[in-house]
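Supplementary Methods, section 5.1.

A reviewer requested that the exact input to the structure prediction be made available. We therefore reproduce it here, unchanged from the version used in the analyses.
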Amino acid sequence: MSNTTRPQGEKNAEKQRFSAILDGFLRKNRIVLLVALVVLLVGIAGIAIVSGVTSAQKNSSTIRVEKLTDDLDAWSNEKDATKKADAEKALVASLKEVTTRWPRQFASIRAYTMLARIAEANKDFAEMEKDWWAIYASFPASFAAPVALQNAAAAAEERGANAEAIAHYRVVVDKYSTKSVGVAHALFAIGRLSEESKDYAAATDSYQKLLATYPDDDWTKLAKDRIIFLKAHGFSK
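The structure derived from this sequence is encoded token-by-token as follows.
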């Protein structure tokens, strides 16, 4: 049935159903991205980000951030509101000290990750976005960078800044190898967000790039469905 003859109510209902399904899927995937970053961090634990750092520096930063990991767990489990607020204030100050004192050490990646977790728990998505972005800005050549960028994009979406989210995803696509973690997801996300802004040409273009680059990826299956949907409704040729 063509887009001109299909009842508007039916089209709206279909769009709402798709949006609900996709929203749940993407929220689940956002957790997967966070887990992926943790796996990456564990995999490269103890490795210096830049050459030339001494073992003493590396050991000091690692010991400090491990202690702060325990403090984060204690903060997460604290039930008393006043104690939790005091613990958070001290923890945030200590984590920021790590990023300042060891700005190019692995410990700094972990510190920014913990800061992002605190911001997410507080629904401070602007701060969460800033913390994830800092990992990319400080360690652009690391395996963690493209994943951190996507989490920054997720935070931007949470605060309703879709243009900024698209910009973060584009950095992933433009600056990282097709073998990097999450590039296929970034292409799909650009398409999805472009659809939301009614930029159907950009959406189709991103979906087509996904099909061409990752023909067997799970995200490609969704992209194919979106291309069919856009064509069926006259939004794409």
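The CA atoms of residues 173 and 202 lie 14 Å apart. These observations are discussed further in the main text.
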